[in-house]
Amino acid sequence: MKRTIRKEARRQWVRAAASLLTLGAGASIAGGIGAALAAGAGRPAAPASANAAGNGAALRTLLVLGDSLSAEYGLARGTGWVALLEKRLAERAPGWNVVNASISGETTAGGATRISSLLEKHEPAAVVVELGGNDALRGLDLNATRRNLERMVGASQKAGAKVLLLGMQVPPNYGKAYTDAFAQIFVDVAKAHRTPLVPFFLEGVADDMALFQPDRIHPNGQAQPRMLENVWPALEPLLRAARR
């Protein structure tokens, strides 16, 4: 019975994403362009502050480059998974400065365009890349998505940063071949660059409509701790390695 409910919830999620695309709203399950971007206003995330400021400790920077899933779209400031991550780091691994450079509606092309300047400005020791969902739900060329992800990961590694790639999945309305090929991109890029991968960032969230905002596209505040837990097992050892 529980499995049936979860399948129905996932179908509702898929229908919501597909219907918004049909209406031309441009929203997505991963980037969630939403009404704000449809009106021409992508909202950047509030930059997180240093979790060890004022104690004289040398700080290392963790850069998060994502879309609305990481930019607190529709959420109160300071309640998204990146803000929760910053609080966890302050408790468990002090000495990290978290910079959230996520923008609602961002595509991999936008991230690839910004990555060089972000690396130069923040000199991160670690980078989390959470992009790609908007590419798929707009039906963009998957080869371009792959190249953009490789550019972001490669540039980050060349700058000396450890990289964590967050994978996404998309509704099957574009056909099984497209959705399978999209998911495989993250696997291939992670393997080629020998970087850790979270296969599906919304695991345990996408199949529960109670964890979504009224648009049934963007995760709500209750979902944010689960999203952090999806990232933490891969991120924690990467941060330890980045400090060596």
Sequence-ordered SSE layout with sheet pairings:
Blueprint: H1 2-22, H2 34-38, E1 60-66, H3 81-92, E2 96-100, H4 108-122, E3 126-130, H5 133-137, H6 142-158, E4 162-166, H7 176-192, E5 197-198, H8 224-242
Parallel strand pairs: 1-2, 1-3, 3-4, 4-5
Polypeptide structure, described:
Helix 4 packs parallel to helix 6 (142-158). It is built from eight helices and five strands. It has one domain (2-242): 3-Layer(aba) Sandwich (Rossmann fold), CATH 3.40.50.1110. With 244 residues, it is α/β, with parallel strands linked by helices. It has a five-stranded parallel beta sheet, with helices on both faces. Helices cover 45% and strands 10% of the residues. The longest helix has 21 residues, at 2-22.
Number of domains: 1
Write the element-wise H/E pattern from the N-terminal end onward.
HHEHEHEHHEHEH
Q: In percent, how helical is the residue content?
A: 40-55%
Q: Say which CATH homologous superfamily is assigned.
A: SGNH hydrolase
Using DSSP, what is the number of strands? 5
Mass-distribution shape: globular
Largest sheet: 5 strands, parallel
The CATH topology is given as: Rossmann fold
Structural class: alpha/beta
Rounded radius of gyration (Å): 17 Å
- Uncertain stretches: 18-43
Strand order of the largest sheet: 2-1-3-4-5
Q: What's the CATH first level?
A: Alpha Beta
Distance between the termini: 48 Å
Q: In what range is the share of β-strand residues?
A: 5-15%
Mean pLDDT: 84
- In the CATH classification, which architecture applies? 3-Layer(aba) Sandwich
Number of helices: 8
